[in-house]
Amino acid sequence: MARIPAAELTGVHGALLKRIIRKKFGAVPDALGVMWHNRRVLRTSMGMGRAATRWNACDQDLKSYAHMAAVSLIGCSFCLDLGYFQAHNEGLDLAKAREVPRWRESEVFTPLERDVLAYAEAMSQTPPTVTDDLSARLLNQLGAPALVELTAFVAAANLAARMNVALGIEAQGMAAACGLPPLAQPSHVTSRA
Question: For a Cys-Cys bond, which of 32, 62, 69, 86 suits 117, CB 3.0-4.6 Å?
């Protein structure tokens, strides 16, 4: 349950937004109603998200895995659900996508993917724990433009995830509605409270 009740999306802009979101996701998430309370913040957040989807210096799959790793570490169930749903719709390897929350234990990721996942988690720590060695490996494997893009993508994921967690916005079953199997849980996690 969100800490701020969702507002009704009203007016022409609200009706148009609901139509677009329903077409894209099948339903209007409560998060949209919560953000509707401050339309400038909503527009900026959505604009930044749209802009980030047009970046193309870094492999999309790597960015998707990094996004899921960051939001999983932060604990944003809404972001993780949305990321898994989008992975399904974008043709990402779902066997890998569902393993992101337990990537350290899983054997499905390449060395480069593991470095990207480690980087996303290191960026998402408070304070960040990114090392020179990890950055150098990624710079060597990806190149400067892709590493800058990956860093910005993970930073944007952190912004959204931390905002959603603080506002109490939780998963709404978007991935389950697609018939996707549940995300894997790390072996040290037995249940979520």
Answer: 69
